[in-house]
C-alpha cells in the first residue's frame, strides 16, 4: 500500500537536518519538530483580545489549546495595530485580583473560621474532628491570601509597548512586536509565590524577552530552541525545558482549505501502544462519522520511530428526516502516536487535517426552517476556495506526516 512506502525510513528517532533535495517542499519548525509543506506555511493566531480563541481569518475556532512552555502559557495574536495592544493591556488589567477583593476574601475566610471554632467547642466528637480539619485548611488558605494582598497590581516596565502585572503568586506580561504587528502574552506562576514581589515579575519579563525571538514560518529552522507558531524560545544544550505542550493550526498558502492541527505533548508513563488497541484506536479518534462516503485505514505507521496509526474519511451530505446540508468538511485525516515513555525523541503526537468547504458549496444546500440543530452548518467556509480532490488531499497529508522529524537534540 502507498502508506507503507511513504513511511519507509521513519524508524530512526535521532534528530535530522532538513532534507529537501528537489526544493518541492518548504521546511518549517513547530515545537521541537521540523515538517515540510508544499508551499509557504501559515500558522494560526488568536483573536486580538485577552483569552482570544485560535483561528484563521474566515475559519472559526476548533478548540485549539495553544502553547505551554513549562508552567507558562503563551499567546500570539493575529496581526493588529499598536493601538489594539493597549486595549488588550486594559483587558488583562481587569482580570487581576485587586487588594480590595483579597481583603473581602480574608473577611469571608475569617467568618468560616469562627463558625468551625464554635463547632470545635461542641460535644459531637465526629463534628469536632471534621471542624479541626477544616480549620487547618482555612488557616493555610488565609495565610496564602494575606501574603498575596500586597502583591497584586501593575508592575513597572520601561518598554512603552509592554505591560506586566502581578496577581499574587502569578504574573501576566505582554508586549507588542512592530515587525509582525502581533501581541504576545505570557502567563505563569512565580517560583517563590507571592513572596517574590514585583521585582520577580520584572525579571521574568527580562528573561523572556532575552530568549524569545519573533519569527516568520521559514525562520528558526536552524536555531536551537522551542518553536512557537510565531516565535522561537532559544535554549542552550543543557538548559532545555522538557515540560511543554503544543497545539496549533497551520496550512499551506497553496491549499488554504487544508487545515492541519498538530498536537505535541510528553508521552505518558503508561507505555501505551496504539498498535495493540482495538481497531488501532480508530473508535476514539476525534473524527465525524456522519455521511461517510470513503474510508481510509486505520493503517499502522511509524511516527518519529514510534508505533502510530493513520485513518481518514470523505463525507457527503448530512441528512435528517426533514432536510439535508453539506458536510462541515469534505474529508479529514488523522495520524496519532502515543510516543514512547522515557524517550525524549518520541512524544505523544497527533496530526489532524480537515478539508474545509467553500461558501459556495455550503450555500448550494440551503438550510430548511425545520432543520434540527445537529443538521445545521457548524463552521464557516472559505469564500471562493475549494479544497483539492480527496486523493490529492490524502497524498498531501501523508507527505506532511512522513516529513515530521526532530529539529535538534533535547
Helix and strand topology:
Layout: H1 2-6, E1 26-30, E2 33-37, E3 41-43, E4 45-46, E5 54-55, E6 66-69, E7 72-76, H2 82-94, H3 99-120, H4 125-148, E8 152-154, E9 162-167, E10 170-177, E11 182-189, H5 198-211, E12 212-214, E13 225-227, E14 231-234, E15 244-252, E16 258-265, E17 292-303, E18 306-315, E19 318-319, E20 324-325, E21 329-337, E22 348-356, H6 359-363, H7 390-403, E23 405-406
Antiparallel strand pairs: 1-2, 2-23, 3-15, 4-5, 6-7, 6-15, 7-11, 8-9, 9-10, 10-11, 12-14, 13-14, 15-16, 16-22, 17-18, 18-21, 19-20, 21-22
Helix pairs in contact: 3-4
Describe the protein in words:
Helix content is 24%, strand content 30%. The chain contains 7 helices and 23 strands. It starts with a helix and ends with a strand. The chain has helices at residues 2-6, 82-94, 99-120, 125-148, 198-211, 359-363, 390-403, and strands spanning 26-30, 33-37, 41-43, 45-46, 54-55, 66-69, 72-76, 152-154, 162-167, 170-177, 182-189, 212-214, 225-227, 231-234, 244-252, 258-265, 292-303, 306-315, 318-319, 324-325, 329-337, 348-356, 405-406. The protein is an alpha+beta fold and 410 residues long. It is globular and about 75 Å long. 36% of the residues are buried. Strands 3, 6, 7, 8, 9, 10, 11, 15, 16, 17, 18, 21 and 22 form a 13-stranded antiparallel β-sheet that branches. Residues 1-22 have low confidence and may be disordered.
Amino acid at each position: 500500500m502507498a502508506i507503507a512506502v511513504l513511511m519507509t525510513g521513519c524508524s530512526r528517532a535521532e534528530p535530522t537536518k532538513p532534507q529537501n533535495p528537489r526544493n518541492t517542499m518548504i521546511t518549517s519548525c513547530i515545537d521541537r519538530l521540523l515538517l515540510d509543506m508544499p508551499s509557504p506555511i501559515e500558522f494560526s493566531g488568536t483573536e486580538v483580545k485577552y483569552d482570544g480563541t485560535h483561528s484563521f481569518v474566515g475559519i472559526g475556532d476548533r478548540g485549539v489549546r495553544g502553547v505551554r512552555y513549562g508552567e507558562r502559557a503563551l499567546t500570539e495574536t493575529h496581526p493588529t495595530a499598536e493601538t489594539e495592544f493597549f486595549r488588550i493591556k486594559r483587558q488583562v488589567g481587569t482580570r487581576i485580583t485587586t487588594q480590595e477583593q483579597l481583603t473581602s476574601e480574608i473577611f469571608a475566610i475569617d467568618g468560616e473560621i469562627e463558625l468551625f471554632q464554635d463547632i470545635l467547642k461542641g460535644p459531637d466528637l465526629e463534628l469536632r474532628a471534621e471542624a479541626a480539619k477544616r480549620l487547618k485548611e482555612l488557616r493555610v488558605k488565609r495565610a496564602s491570601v494575606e501574603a498575596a494582598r500586597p502583591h497584586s497590581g501593575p508592575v513597572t516596565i520601561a518598554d512603552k509597548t509592554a505591560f506586566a502585572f502581578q496577581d499574587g503568586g502569578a504574573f501576566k506580561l505582554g508586549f507588542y512586536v512592530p515587525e509582525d504587528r502581533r501581541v504576545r502574552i505570557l502567563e505563569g506562576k512565580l517560583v517563590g509565590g507571592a513572596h517574590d514581589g514585583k521585582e520577580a515579575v520584572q525579571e521574568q519579563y527580562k528573561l523572556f524577552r532575552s530568549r524569545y525571538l519573533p519569527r516568520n514560518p521559514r525562520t528558526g529552522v536552524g536555531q536551537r530552541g522551542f518553536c512557537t507558531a510565531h516565535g522561537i524560545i532559544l535554549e542552550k544544550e543543557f538548559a532545555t525545558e522538557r515540560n511543554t505542550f503544543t497545539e496549533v493550526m497551520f496550512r499551506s498558502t497553496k491549499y488554504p482549505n487544508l487545515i492541519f492541527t498538530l498536537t505535541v505533548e510528553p508521552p505518558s508513563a503508561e507505555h501505551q501502544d496504539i498498535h495493540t488497541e482495538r481497531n488501532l484506536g480508530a473508535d476514539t479518534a476525534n473524527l465525524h462519522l456522519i455521511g461517510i462516503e470513503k474510508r481510509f485505514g486505520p493503517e499502522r505507521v511509524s511516527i518519529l520511530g514510534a508505533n502510530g496509526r493513520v485513518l481518514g474519511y470523505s463525507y457527503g451530505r448530512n441528512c435528517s428526516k426533514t432536510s439535508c446540508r453539506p458536510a462541515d468538511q469534505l474529508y479529514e485525516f488523522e495520524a496519532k502516536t502515543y510516543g514512547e515513555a522515557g524517550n525524549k525523541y518520541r512524544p505523544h503526537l497527533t496530526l489532524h487535517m480537515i478539508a474545509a468547504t467553500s461558501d459556495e458549496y455550503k450555500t448550494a444546500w440551503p438550510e430548511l426552517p425545520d432543520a434540527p440543530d445537529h443538521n445545521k452548518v457548524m463552521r464557516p467556509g472559505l469564500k471562493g476556495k475549494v479544497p483539492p480532490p480527496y486523493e490529492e488531499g490524502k497524498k498531501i497529508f501523508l507527505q506532511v506526516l512522513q516529513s515530521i522529524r526532530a529539529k535538534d537534540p533535547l
